[in-house]
Amino acid sequence: MAEGGAAGGEGLLYLTDDQLRKGIEAMFFAYRAFTSDPDRILAVHDYGRAHHRALHFIHRSPGTTVTNLLAILGVTKQSLNRVLRTLVEDGLVEARIGHADRRERHLHLTAGGLALERQLSDAQRARMRAAYRAAGPEAVAGFRLVLEAMMDADTRRHYLRLRDGT
Amino acid sequence: MAEGGAAGGEGLLYLTDDQLRKGIEAMFFAYRAFTSDPDRILAVHDYGRAHHRALHFIHRSPGTTVTNLLAILGVTKQSLNRVLRTLVEDGLVEARIGHADRRERHLHLTAGGLALERQLSDAQRARMRAAYRAAGPEAVAGFRLVLEAMMDADTRRHYLRLRDGT
DNA sequence: GAGTTTACGTCAGCCTTGTTGACTTTCCAA
DNA sequence: TTGGAAAGTCAACAAGGCTGACGTAAACTC
Protein backbone atom coordinates (compact mmCIF):
# COMPACT_ATOMS: atom_id res chain seq x y z
CA MET A 1 0.00 0.00 0.00
CA ALA A 2 2.09 2.85 1.39
CA GLU A 3 0.51 5.54 -0.76
CA GLY A 4 -2.52 4.31 -2.67
CA GLY A 5 -6.10 5.05 -1.77
CA ALA A 6 -6.70 8.65 -0.84
CA ALA A 7 -3.59 9.99 -2.63
CA GLY A 8 -1.50 12.83 -1.29
CA GLY A 9 -4.07 15.43 -2.16
CA GLU A 10 -2.20 17.54 -4.73
CA GLY A 11 -2.06 16.39 -8.33
CA LEU A 12 -1.15 12.81 -7.58
CA LEU A 13 -4.44 11.16 -8.45
CA TYR A 14 -2.74 9.43 -11.35
CA LEU A 15 -0.72 7.42 -8.84
CA THR A 16 -3.62 5.82 -6.98
CA ASP A 17 -3.77 2.03 -6.77
CA ASP A 18 -6.84 2.16 -8.95
CA GLN A 19 -5.10 4.08 -11.72
CA LEU A 20 -2.10 1.76 -11.51
CA ARG A 21 -4.34 -1.26 -11.80
CA LYS A 22 -5.91 0.11 -14.95
CA GLY A 23 -2.46 0.61 -16.40
CA ILE A 24 -1.52 -2.95 -15.53
CA GLU A 25 -4.61 -4.38 -17.20
CA ALA A 26 -4.15 -2.14 -20.23
CA MET A 27 -0.60 -3.45 -20.55
CA PHE A 28 -1.78 -7.05 -20.42
CA PHE A 29 -4.54 -6.70 -23.00
CA ALA A 30 -2.54 -4.48 -25.33
CA TYR A 31 0.45 -6.80 -25.36
CA ARG A 32 -1.75 -9.69 -26.34
CA ALA A 33 -3.08 -7.73 -29.30
CA PHE A 34 0.43 -6.56 -30.10
CA THR A 35 1.67 -10.12 -30.59
CA SER A 36 -1.45 -11.55 -32.22
CA ASP A 37 -0.82 -10.44 -35.81
CA PRO A 38 2.73 -11.81 -36.04
CA ASP A 39 1.60 -14.97 -34.23
CA ARG A 40 -0.91 -15.68 -36.98
CA ILE A 41 1.69 -15.29 -39.69
CA LEU A 42 4.24 -17.36 -37.81
CA ALA A 43 1.78 -20.21 -37.30
CA VAL A 44 1.44 -20.58 -41.07
CA HIS A 45 5.20 -21.07 -41.39
CA ASP A 46 5.39 -23.33 -38.33
CA TYR A 47 7.42 -20.85 -36.36
CA GLY A 48 6.85 -19.26 -32.96
CA ARG A 49 7.38 -15.97 -31.23
CA ALA A 50 10.98 -16.88 -30.48
CA HIS A 51 11.74 -17.04 -34.22
CA HIS A 52 10.19 -13.63 -34.69
CA ARG A 53 12.37 -12.09 -32.00
CA ALA A 54 15.51 -13.56 -33.54
CA LEU A 55 14.57 -12.34 -37.03
CA HIS A 56 13.73 -8.89 -35.71
CA PHE A 57 16.99 -8.27 -33.91
CA ILE A 58 19.18 -9.83 -36.59
CA HIS A 59 17.45 -7.52 -39.05
CA ARG A 60 18.10 -4.55 -36.78
CA SER A 61 21.76 -5.37 -36.27
CA PRO A 62 23.04 -7.33 -39.25
CA GLY A 63 26.26 -9.16 -38.49
CA THR A 64 25.52 -9.33 -34.76
CA THR A 65 27.00 -12.27 -32.88
CA VAL A 66 25.21 -15.01 -30.97
CA THR A 67 26.45 -13.68 -27.62
CA ASN A 68 25.17 -10.23 -28.48
CA LEU A 69 21.77 -11.57 -29.37
CA LEU A 70 21.68 -13.54 -26.12
CA ALA A 71 22.20 -10.37 -24.11
CA ILE A 72 19.39 -8.58 -25.93
CA LEU A 73 16.89 -11.41 -25.80
CA GLY A 74 17.68 -12.46 -22.25
CA VAL A 75 17.35 -16.20 -22.85
CA THR A 76 19.78 -19.09 -22.53
CA LYS A 77 21.99 -20.07 -25.42
CA GLN A 78 20.36 -23.49 -25.57
CA SER A 79 17.01 -21.85 -26.06
CA LEU A 80 18.27 -19.43 -28.69
CA ASN A 81 20.31 -22.10 -30.42
CA ARG A 82 17.29 -24.27 -31.02
CA VAL A 83 15.53 -21.42 -32.79
CA LEU A 84 18.61 -20.25 -34.65
CA ARG A 85 19.33 -23.75 -35.91
CA THR A 86 15.94 -24.10 -37.55
CA LEU A 87 16.24 -20.65 -39.11
CA VAL A 88 19.66 -21.52 -40.57
CA GLU A 89 18.43 -24.93 -41.76
CA ASP A 90 15.46 -23.31 -43.45
CA GLY A 91 17.72 -20.80 -45.15
CA LEU A 92 16.36 -17.66 -43.50
CA VAL A 93 19.49 -16.85 -41.53
CA GLU A 94 23.15 -17.13 -42.48
CA ALA A 95 25.80 -17.60 -39.76
CA ARG A 96 29.15 -16.38 -41.09
CA ILE A 97 32.37 -17.21 -39.30
CA GLY A 98 34.07 -14.09 -37.95
CA HIS A 99 37.06 -12.48 -39.72
CA ALA A 100 38.95 -11.11 -36.74
CA ASP A 101 37.72 -13.74 -34.32
CA ARG A 102 36.93 -17.03 -35.95
CA ARG A 103 35.02 -18.24 -32.89
CA GLU A 104 32.25 -15.76 -33.55
CA ARG A 105 29.25 -16.30 -35.78
CA HIS A 106 27.99 -13.18 -37.48
CA LEU A 107 24.29 -13.46 -38.21
CA HIS A 108 22.61 -12.16 -41.34
CA LEU A 109 19.18 -12.54 -42.89
CA THR A 110 19.01 -14.12 -46.34
CA ALA A 111 16.57 -12.90 -48.97
CA GLY A 112 14.01 -15.32 -47.55
CA GLY A 113 14.66 -14.12 -44.03
CA LEU A 114 14.26 -10.52 -45.07
CA ALA A 115 10.96 -11.37 -46.76
CA LEU A 116 9.50 -13.02 -43.66
CA GLU A 117 10.80 -10.30 -41.38
CA ARG A 118 9.20 -7.73 -43.62
CA GLN A 119 5.89 -9.56 -43.56
CA LEU A 120 5.96 -9.78 -39.77
CA SER A 121 7.00 -6.22 -39.11
CA ASP A 122 4.52 -4.85 -41.66
CA ALA A 123 1.72 -6.51 -39.72
CA GLN A 124 3.01 -5.27 -36.41
CA ARG A 125 3.59 -1.76 -37.68
CA ALA A 126 0.11 -1.61 -39.18
CA ARG A 127 -1.46 -2.12 -35.77
CA MET A 128 0.94 0.26 -34.09
CA ARG A 129 0.32 2.91 -36.75
CA ALA A 130 -3.43 2.67 -36.31
CA ALA A 131 -3.06 3.01 -32.55
CA TYR A 132 -0.67 5.95 -32.88
CA ARG A 133 -2.92 7.72 -35.32
CA ALA A 134 -5.97 7.20 -33.12
CA ALA A 135 -4.16 8.47 -30.01
CA GLY A 136 -2.23 11.37 -31.53
CA PRO A 137 1.38 12.57 -31.27
CA GLU A 138 1.30 13.80 -27.66
CA ALA A 139 -0.12 10.50 -26.48
CA VAL A 140 2.57 8.64 -28.40
CA ALA A 141 5.30 10.64 -26.69
CA GLY A 142 3.81 9.75 -23.31
CA PHE A 143 3.43 6.12 -24.29
CA ARG A 144 7.13 5.86 -25.07
CA LEU A 145 8.15 7.75 -21.95
CA VAL A 146 6.25 5.44 -19.62
CA LEU A 147 7.49 2.29 -21.35
CA GLU A 148 11.09 3.46 -21.16
CA ALA A 149 10.72 4.31 -17.48
CA MET A 150 9.37 0.82 -16.87
CA MET A 151 12.44 -1.02 -18.19
CA ASP A 152 15.29 -2.31 -16.04
CA ALA A 153 18.45 -0.24 -16.32
CA ASP A 154 20.29 -2.98 -18.18
CA THR A 155 17.50 -3.51 -20.65
CA ARG A 156 17.18 0.21 -21.19
CA ARG A 157 20.82 0.33 -22.24
CA HIS A 158 20.15 -2.21 -24.99
CA TYR A 159 17.00 -0.41 -25.99
CA LEU A 160 18.63 3.01 -26.22
CA ARG A 161 21.57 1.69 -28.17
CA LEU A 162 19.13 0.30 -30.71
CA ARG A 163 16.87 3.33 -30.60
CA ASP A 164 19.55 5.85 -31.43
CA GLY A 165 21.52 4.51 -34.38
CA THR A 166 23.43 1.29 -33.89
CA MET B 1 5.02 0.36 -46.45
CA ALA B 2 2.24 2.55 -47.79
CA GLU B 3 3.16 5.64 -45.81
CA GLY B 4 6.38 5.32 -43.88
CA GLY B 5 9.66 6.90 -44.86
CA ALA B 6 9.35 10.53 -45.86
CA ALA B 7 6.00 11.05 -44.10
CA GLY B 8 3.24 13.22 -45.52
CA GLY B 9 5.07 16.41 -44.64
CA GLU B 10 2.69 17.94 -42.11
CA GLY B 11 2.94 16.83 -38.48
CA LEU B 12 3.00 13.13 -39.20
CA LEU B 13 6.59 12.42 -38.33
CA TYR B 14 5.41 10.33 -35.40
CA LEU B 15 4.00 7.82 -37.87
CA THR B 16 7.22 7.03 -39.71
CA ASP B 17 8.34 3.41 -39.86
CA ASP B 18 11.28 4.36 -37.69
CA GLN B 19 9.09 5.79 -34.95
CA LEU B 20 6.81 2.78 -35.10
CA ARG B 21 9.77 0.45 -34.79
CA LYS B 22 10.93 2.23 -31.66
CA GLY B 23 7.47 1.83 -30.20
CA ILE B 24 7.50 -1.87 -31.02
CA GLU B 25 10.85 -2.41 -29.34
CA ALA B 26 9.83 -0.33 -26.33
CA MET B 27 6.75 -2.52 -25.99
CA PHE B 28 8.83 -5.69 -26.06
CA PHE B 29 11.40 -4.59 -23.52
CA ALA B 30 8.90 -2.93 -21.20
CA TYR B 31 6.63 -5.94 -21.12
CA ARG B 32 9.49 -8.14 -20.11
CA ALA B 33 10.27 -5.85 -17.19
CA PHE B 34 6.57 -5.62 -16.40
CA THR B 35 6.30 -9.37 -15.84
CA SER B 36 9.68 -9.90 -14.19
CA ASP B 37 8.76 -8.94 -10.61
CA PRO B 38 5.70 -11.20 -10.36
CA ASP B 39 7.63 -13.96 -12.12
CA ARG B 40 10.23 -13.95 -9.38
CA ILE B 41 7.60 -14.21 -6.66
CA LEU B 42 5.70 -16.91 -8.52
CA ALA B 43 8.83 -19.01 -8.96
CA VAL B 44 9.22 -19.21 -5.17
CA HIS B 45 5.73 -20.65 -4.86
CA ASP B 46 6.16 -22.94 -7.87
CA TYR B 47 3.56 -21.13 -9.92
CA GLY B 48 3.69 -19.50 -13.34
CA ARG B 49 2.32 -16.47 -15.10
CA ALA B 50 -0.93 -18.24 -15.84
CA HIS B 51 -1.60 -18.60 -12.12
CA HIS B 52 -1.02 -14.89 -11.66
CA ARG B 53 -3.51 -14.02 -14.37
CA ALA B 54 -6.16 -16.26 -12.84
CA LEU B 55 -5.62 -14.81 -9.35
CA HIS B 56 -5.73 -11.28 -10.70
CA PHE B 57 -9.02 -11.57 -12.53
CA ILE B 58 -10.74 -13.65 -9.86
CA HIS B 59 -9.72 -10.95 -7.41
CA ARG B 60 -11.14 -8.29 -9.70
CA SER B 61 -14.44 -10.10 -10.22
CA PRO B 62 -15.17 -12.33 -7.24
CA GLY B 63 -17.75 -15.00 -8.04
CA THR B 64 -16.98 -14.97 -11.74
CA THR B 65 -17.49 -18.22 -13.64
CA VAL B 66 -14.96 -20.30 -15.50
CA THR B 67 -16.52 -19.39 -18.83
CA ASN B 68 -16.32 -15.73 -17.98
CA LEU B 69 -12.68 -16.01 -17.07
CA LEU B 70 -12.07 -17.89 -20.32
CA ALA B 71 -13.40 -15.00 -22.35
CA ILE B 72 -11.16 -12.52 -20.54
CA LEU B 73 -8.00 -14.58 -20.64
CA GLY B 74 -8.46 -15.79 -24.20
CA VAL B 75 -7.16 -19.32 -23.62
CA THR B 76 -8.80 -22.72 -23.92
CA LYS B 77 -10.77 -24.01 -20.99
CA GLN B 78 -8.46 -27.00 -20.72
CA SER B 79 -5.51 -24.69 -20.27
CA LEU B 80 -7.27 -22.61 -17.66
CA ASN B 81 -8.59 -25.67 -15.91
CA ARG B 82 -5.14 -27.04 -15.20
CA VAL B 83 -4.12 -23.82 -13.50
CA LEU B 84 -7.39 -23.49 -11.65
CA ARG B 85 -7.15 -27.05 -10.35
CA THR B 86 -3.77 -26.49 -8.73
CA LEU B 87 -4.99 -23.25 -7.18
CA VAL B 88 -8.02 -25.00 -5.74
CA GLU B 89 -5.93 -27.94 -4.51
CA ASP B 90 -3.52 -25.55 -2.84
CA GLY B 91 -6.40 -23.76 -1.16
CA LEU B 92 -5.92 -20.38 -2.84
CA VAL B 93 -9.14 -20.47 -4.84
CA GLU B 94 -12.58 -21.79 -3.95
CA ALA B 95 -14.90 -23.01 -6.73
CA ARG B 96 -18.50 -22.89 -5.51
CA ILE B 97 -21.18 -24.72 -7.46
CA GLY B 98 -23.76 -22.32 -8.90
CA HIS B 99 -27.16 -21.81 -7.26
CA ALA B 100 -29.28 -21.16 -10.30
CA ASP B 101 -27.17 -23.23 -12.67
CA ARG B 102 -25.39 -26.11 -11.04
CA ARG B 103 -23.04 -26.49 -14.04
CA GLU B 104 -21.35 -23.23 -13.19
CA ARG B 105 -18.42 -22.80 -10.81
CA HIS B 106 -18.25 -19.45 -9.07
CA LEU B 107 -14.65 -18.58 -8.27
CA HIS B 108 -13.46 -16.84 -5.10
CA LEU B 109 -10.06 -16.22 -3.52
CA THR B 110 -9.49 -17.66 -0.06
CA ALA B 111 -7.46 -15.79 2.57
CA GLY B 112 -4.34 -17.44 1.19
CA GLY B 113 -5.28 -16.51 -2.36
CA LEU B 114 -5.85 -12.92 -1.35
CA ALA B 115 -2.45 -12.82 0.35
CA LEU B 116 -0.58 -14.05 -2.72
CA GLU B 117 -2.56 -11.82 -5.03
CA ARG B 118 -1.68 -8.87 -2.84
CA GLN B 119 1.98 -9.75 -2.87
CA LEU B 120 2.01 -10.04 -6.66
CA SER B 121 0.07 -6.89 -7.36
CA ASP B 122 2.08 -4.89 -4.85
CA ALA B 123 5.23 -5.77 -6.75
CA GLN B 124 3.68 -4.97 -10.09
CA ARG B 125 2.21 -1.71 -8.87
CA ALA B 126 5.53 -0.63 -7.39
CA ARG B 127 7.18 -0.76 -10.78
CA MET B 128 4.24 0.87 -12.49
CA ARG B 129 4.14 3.62 -9.88
CA ALA B 130 7.83 4.38 -10.33
CA ALA B 131 7.40 4.56 -14.10
CA TYR B 132 4.30 6.76 -13.80
CA ARG B 133 6.03 9.09 -11.39
CA ALA B 134 9.09 9.37 -13.60
CA ALA B 135 7.03 10.07 -16.71
CA GLY B 136 4.40 12.39 -15.25
CA PRO B 137 0.60 12.57 -15.54
CA GLU B 138 0.36 13.74 -19.15
CA ALA B 139 2.61 10.91 -20.28
CA VAL B 140 0.49 8.44 -18.33
CA ALA B 141 -2.66 9.63 -20.06
CA GLY B 142 -0.98 9.12 -23.43
CA PHE B 143 0.32 5.71 -22.40
CA ARG B 144 -3.17 4.50 -21.60
CA LEU B 145 -4.64 6.02 -24.75
CA VAL B 146 -2.20 4.25 -27.04
CA LEU B 147 -2.57 0.91 -25.25
CA GLU B 148 -6.34 1.10 -25.47
CA ALA B 149 -6.19 1.95 -29.16
CA MET B 150 -3.97 -1.05 -29.72
CA MET B 151 -6.45 -3.63 -28.38
CA ASP B 152 -8.83 -5.66 -30.50
CA ALA B 153 -12.42 -4.47 -30.28
CA ASP B 154 -13.50 -7.57 -28.37
CA THR B 155 -10.69 -7.31 -25.87
CA ARG B 156 -11.35 -3.62 -25.38
CA ARG B 157 -14.89 -4.44 -24.37
CA HIS B 158 -13.61 -6.68 -21.57
CA TYR B 159 -11.04 -4.10 -20.58
CA LEU B 160 -13.52 -1.23 -20.41
CA ARG B 161 -16.02 -3.26 -18.44
CA LEU B 162 -13.31 -3.91 -15.88
CA ARG B 163 -11.93 -0.40 -16.04
CA ASP B 164 -15.19 1.34 -15.25
CA GLY B 165 -16.70 -0.40 -12.24
CA THR B 166 -17.74 -4.01 -12.68
C1' DG C 1 54.53 -23.17 -25.46
C1' DA C 2 51.11 -24.55 -21.74
C1' DG C 3 47.19 -23.47 -19.49
C1' DT C 4 43.06 -20.62 -19.13
C1' DT C 5 39.27 -18.24 -20.94
C1' DT C 6 35.85 -17.24 -24.43
C1' DA C 7 32.40 -18.25 -28.13
C1' DC C 8 29.64 -21.43 -29.74
C1' DG C 9 27.26 -25.87 -30.28
C1' DT C 10 24.93 -30.02 -28.43
C1' DC C 11 22.72 -33.79 -25.69
C1' DA C 12 19.53 -34.87 -22.10
C1' DG C 13 15.80 -33.84 -19.30
C1' DC C 14 12.51 -30.87 -16.77
C1' DC C 15 8.49 -27.43 -16.40
C1' DT C 16 4.85 -24.26 -17.79
C1' DT C 17 1.35 -23.34 -20.68
C1' DG C 18 -0.59 -23.38 -24.89
C1' DT C 19 -3.19 -26.78 -28.08
C1' DT C 20 -6.93 -30.66 -29.72
C1' DG C 21 -9.92 -34.61 -28.77
C1' DA C 22 -13.01 -37.27 -26.05
C1' DC C 23 -15.95 -37.46 -22.10
C1' DT C 24 -19.55 -36.36 -18.13
C1' DT C 25 -22.93 -33.63 -16.01
C1' DT C 26 -26.41 -30.37 -16.23
C1' DC C 27 -29.78 -27.48 -18.27
C1' DC C 28 -33.26 -26.18 -21.48
C1' DA C 29 -36.31 -26.26 -25.31
C1' DA C 30 -38.95 -28.77 -28.71
C1' DT D 1 -38.92 -36.93 -22.54
C1' DT D 2 -35.48 -36.58 -25.41
C1' DG D 3 -31.85 -34.37 -27.91
C1' DG D 4 -28.77 -30.60 -28.23
C1' DA D 5 -25.96 -27.17 -26.12
C1' DA D 6 -23.24 -25.51 -22.45
C1' DA D 7 -19.99 -26.02 -18.34
C1' DG D 8 -16.45 -28.37 -16.80
C1' DT D 9 -12.85 -32.44 -16.51
C1' DC D 10 -9.23 -35.84 -18.10
C1' DA D 11 -5.51 -37.19 -21.45
C1' DA D 12 -1.98 -36.44 -24.49
C1' DC D 13 0.99 -33.55 -27.39
C1' DA D 14 4.08 -29.40 -28.79
C1' DA D 15 6.57 -25.04 -28.21
C1' DG D 16 9.82 -22.87 -25.84
C1' DG D 17 11.52 -21.52 -21.58
C1' DC D 18 15.06 -23.64 -18.07
C1' DT D 19 19.40 -26.27 -15.82
C1' DG D 20 23.46 -29.12 -16.12
C1' DA D 21 27.19 -31.33 -18.39
C1' DC D 22 30.24 -31.68 -22.00
C1' DG D 23 33.01 -30.78 -26.45
C1' DT D 24 35.68 -27.98 -29.70
C1' DA D 25 38.03 -24.38 -31.59
C1' DA D 26 40.13 -20.06 -31.20
C1' DA D 27 42.12 -16.45 -28.56
C1' DC D 28 44.57 -14.74 -24.83
C1' DT D 29 48.03 -14.75 -20.91
C1' DC D 30 51.78 -15.91 -18.35
Structure description:
The structure is a homodimer of 166-residue chains. The first copy, chain A, has helices at residues 17-44, 49-60, 66-73, 77-89, 111-135, 137-150, 153-163, and strands at residues 64-65, 93-97, 105-109. Chain A has 166 residues and is mostly helical. The first copy, chain A, has two domains: 16-123, Arc Repressor Mutant, subunit A (Orthogonal Bundle); 136-166. A three-stranded antiparallel beta sheet of chain A has the order 1-3-2. Mean pLDDT of chain A is 92; it is low at 1-8. Chains A and B meet through helix 1, helix 5, helix 6 and helix 7 of A and helix 1, helix 5, helix 6 and helix 7 of B. Chain B binds a DNA duplex (30 and 30 nucleotides) through helix 4.
Brief write-up:
The structure is a homodimer of 166-residue chains. Chain A has seven helices and three strands. The first copy, chain A, has 166 residues and is mainly α.
